[in-house]
Amino acid sequence: MTTVQLQAPAVRPKVVARTGLHAVLAANVVVVAALFAESGASANALVLLGRLTGLYGALLMAFQLLLVARLPWLDRRLGMDRLTSWHRWVGFSLLWLLVAHAVFITLGYAQPASLPPVDEFVSLATTVDGVLRAIVALLVIMVVGGVSARWARRRMAYETWHFIHLYTYIAVVLAFSHQIGTGTTFTASPAATAYWWGLWGFALGSVVVGRLVLPLWRNLRHRLRVAAVVPESPDVVSIYITGRHLDRLPARAGQFFLWRFLTRDRWWQANPFSLSAAPDGRHLRLTAKALGPGSASLRALKPGTRVFAEGPYGAFTTMHRTRPNTLLIAGGVGITPIRALLEELRGHVVVLYRVSRPRDAVLLHEMRGLAQARGAVLHVVTGPSDGAPLGPQALAHAVPDIRDRDVFVCGPPGMTGAVLQSLRDLGVPKRQVHAERFSLAS
After folding, report:
1. Pseudo-torsion of CA 146, 148, 150, 153, nearest 10°?
2. Which residues touch 289 (CB under 8 Å, ≥6 apart)?
3. For helices 167-182 and 158-165, what crossing angle results, to 10°?
4. What's the angle, vertex CA 421, arms to CA 416 and CA 426, rounded to 5?
């Protein structure tokens, strides 16, 4: 066996991106505090607290837009799952800041006027320009926060949840207009005005570029169409996509797209599917299992069907390797990005493919062929759905040098969580573990 020496990057891409985001947020926190102090402290303490929480709420709202803008530089380094997780937790922080802003402002103005808080709240809403818009924005954010809670999200179709989430952009516009109309810090100095216009312009511009301009430009350039629909098993199908200049599409093995097939009954559905083969500049391939109405209907697609694809997305790529040898762990249909990675990886590779029954092993014939061609070791692990087959002892037995390998894990959330715990128990360094939590698309 030939050992491939891999030179690990001096600074890992994830660290650079994460540190950069933290630094940008921290610097803006300082700038906002400085601008707030410069604006003066003529009001009472409650009003000052209300203004400060409002300013930091505006900052977090702009930061939220950056997290969901799907900018390629950030996405390739951090991954959409991590960015979405941060977006979720920042969103809850934003909600509480805006609630605090409303409460402190209301109490602060009610105190000198000797009015009950409710009467003062009504008075502000009906007499001060921009306050009613801010109240509507807060209500919209509260609704979006409610449907983003895990218990609500599980009971809602993705398209419904996504549609409700779009109202956040209306809340952003309303909040920004409120800040322009009533925010004393916004107009306290030319520097403050320039800062806030610049912040909002950059945040909104990032969303427009990442979520609108770039997808439209790429699809106009590549003109994607279905080339072939190939059944892999009774409930699994592979879709081959062709188009123009695919060699210029910056897709890598392990990434995914949001696929929208432009038929009468599917054009409005966007499903996330990973590439199941490394991009070769001629075509793209996705492989999906019939897990719901959306993925089940893929078998009926006709060659020539136009495709609108957003992406590529994801940090589940060889860009983040730190060691010369690799362990790939897949569960179920999570084999699709693992199979693509196997094509691209160099060095010695071990693949553990976890399925309930041998007949559930999707693309197994391809995996065996690739493993043989590349000198990789393939183990198909079958049995009950508990974590024992991929527990610490089982992993250490199958891959004795596991601590000296990069480990890529993709599968259902339960399996992925169990494997990540096993890797921690075995002492595999965190920087060598790369996971993508495979969510079942419907």
Report:
1. 100
2. 235, 236, 295, 332, 333, 362
3. 10
4. 125
Sign of CA dihedral 72, 74, 77, 79: negative
CB neighbour list of residue 71: distance below 8 Å, 6 or more residues apart: 206, 209, 210
Quick check: 362 and 289 in contact, CB under 8 A? yes
* DSSP letter for each residue of 252-294: -TT-EEEEEE-STTTTT--EEEEBSS---SSEEEEEEE--SHH
Cα–Cα distance between 257 and 346 in angstroms, integer? 24
Pairwise CA distance, residues 22 & 26, whole Å: 6
pTM: 0.86
Q: Which long-range contacts (CB under 8 A, 24 or more apart) does 205-209 make?
A: 206/65, 206/66, 206/69, 206/71, 207/65, 207/68, 207/69, 207/169, 209/69, 209/71
Is residue 231 over pLDDT 50? Answer: yes
Residue 399 has pLDDT above 60, yes or no: yes
DSSP code for 210: I
CA dist 305 and 263 (Å) reads 7
pLDDT digits (tens, 9 = 90+) for 59-84: 999 999 999 999 999 999 999 888 98
Task: Give the pLDDT score at 427.
Answer: 96
| Tokens 């979520």 -> residue | 211
